[in-house]
Amino acid sequence: xxxxxxxxxxxxxVVDDHELLSSALAVAMDVDGRATVVATAPDLAxxxxxxxxxRPDVVLxxxxxxxxxxxxxxxxxLEASPSSRILMMTGWATERSSMAALEAGAHGIVSKAxxxxxxxxxxxxxxxxxxxxxxxxxxxxLGRTGARDRTTLSGRELDVLEALACGEPxxxxxxxxxxxxxxxxxxLARAMLKLGVHDRLSAVTExxxxxxxxxxxxxxxxxxxxxxxxx
Length: 231
Description:
By secondary structure, the chain is α/β, with parallel strands linked by helices. It contains 11 helices and 7 strands.
């Protein structure tokens, strides 16, 4: 898990058409101190515009919005702010909508029925690079994607896991792999989903167990060295 930067809170955009909930979340985050709401939007169109302007660390969006369902528009939110991580709130977490959101690039799903402090905690976890899923769906979703995708990790996902297996700090690995810290976290989250695990240590362990990576410095693998260096 990444160590949170003590000098600033995570910057969050809340996309929800219920002003009372948006305000309550803003207060809860301020009290908690790990995150702060930098903007709110009542719909997807406003969320895309606000994301492009504020480039938040996390976009916390309701699933059902006046102009569409967020699980069908994750890609557009990421296009507006590629470095942001998407956490979707839902009143009813179905397997279909959850899979659609995750496959489109969302980094977590949280139930709106959770207490505010649990939602704030989910924001912090997603910002740190974890994959957050509702407890009642986690087993089914991870088992389903893991069985299908565990051997289809992309080259960059393998690069990230291999660097972390070597014990490299995330910032060092990101610089060597010629990607931003946020991009590294995105690759890690997708790898965790495919491997059916919840945290980076388990992802590295499972990748080693499956023979997808070796616990050695990337420089010792000539066949991978080309991908791991900047052009």
